[in-house]
Amino acid sequence: MVIIIAAMLGALYGAYAARKRGGATGRDIAQYAATHALIFAILGVFLTVAIARMAG
Hints:
The protein is an all-alpha fold and 56 residues long. It has one domain (2-55). The protein contains 2 helices and no strands. Helix 1 runs antiparallel to helix 2. The two termini are 19 Å apart. The model has no long low-confidence stretch (mean pLDDT 95).
């Protein structure tokens, strides 16, 4: 669940960042969104593992 939420937040942040930097086309925005979604999902995996290890 953490991974999915992190990926969604990453996609939203990536789209925002692309628009802020002047992304000319939808492809620019989609690339930023996909890249940030993957990065945030990987961070979500690490967070999930850390939570699982601390829980016992």
